[in-house]
Amino acid sequence: MPTVLIIGASRGIGFGLAQEYRAAGWRVIGTARQADDLDKLTAIGAKSLQLDVNDLNDCAGLGWLLDDEKIDVAILNAGVIGTRTEKLDTPSAEEFNLVMQTNVLAAMRILPIIAPMVQSAQGTLAVISSEMGSLSLRSGTHAWLYRASKAALNSVLLDIAHTYSGMTSIALHPGWVRTAMGTDQAPLSVEQSTAGIRATIAARTPRDNGKFFNYDGTPLSW
Ligand SMILES: NC(=O)c1ccc[n+]([C@@H]2O[C@H](COP(=O)([O-])OP(=O)(O)OC[C@H]3O[C@@H](n4cnc5c(N)ncnc54)[C@H](OP(=O)(O)O)[C@@H]3O)[C@@H](O)[C@H]2O)c1
């Protein structure tokens, strides 16, 4: 039975991915911050691990908790959007730190820990990025701090892809999805997004290492 690790599986796309992979017969390891959310993961048959991606000790303990697991697919999903600015309002240092630490620093802590576990399974590592982080597809300035954080996350992913051979590392845009972050205005359901993400990951080969994809498998430019 293949194993998927989902970092940030408490709700929204992350919990949807846990349900999607369980329904497909996978062993699922999901992380969450709150006890209730850990119970929710256990209730769907997943192994749950407590992890706040902004807690240095939690991140450092992840390798020990996973104990040399072979991870076929790892998905770094946890993220925050911050204030939904329209204009170029300078964020406070506090807000900058929260968004950048959650979306970028956490990746720089967690990906070097889990990449060797994916490498030993010759598997696929995906970060849930956003089209809003693409420099070449930029068509607006909404939530510019979030955009900057996802552009930085894409850079981190490329460095992971350069460093770990024998596995496939990609960035994924999940679509605009009806979650707390995506709002109820979004056109896609969580189920549509997560089914697409699972299929897109399953279709990847080592030739796709270091590439960016939409949830439906369409390649995206950085
Ligand atoms: N929805 C969209 O339309 C859309 C579009 C593009 C990209 N994305 C990306 O997709 C990913 C999931 O978004 P979503 O729409 O499902 O958002 P969501 O419903 O707001 O869920 C965010 C997830 O991130 C977790 N998280 C945030 N900070 C964390 C921390 N410090 N430690 C651990 N977990 C933390 C949350 O856990 P808690 O429950 O503990 O807060 C939750 O599981 C994000 O990376 C987002 O940027 C979403």
TrEMBL record:
Q: Which InterPro entries match?
A: NAD(P)-bd_dom_sf, SDR_enzymes, SDR_fam
Which SUPFAM superfamilies does this UniProt record tie to the protein? NAD(P)-binding Rossmann-fold domains
Domain of life from the UniProt record: Bacteria
Which terms in the Gene Ontology molecular function aspect does this entry carry?
oxidoreductase activity, acting on the CH-OH group of donors, NAD or NADP as acceptor
Q: Pfam family example for this protein?
A: adh_short
Quote the protein name from its UniProt record. Answer: SDR family oxidoreductase
Q: Which organism is it from?
A: Sapientia aquatica
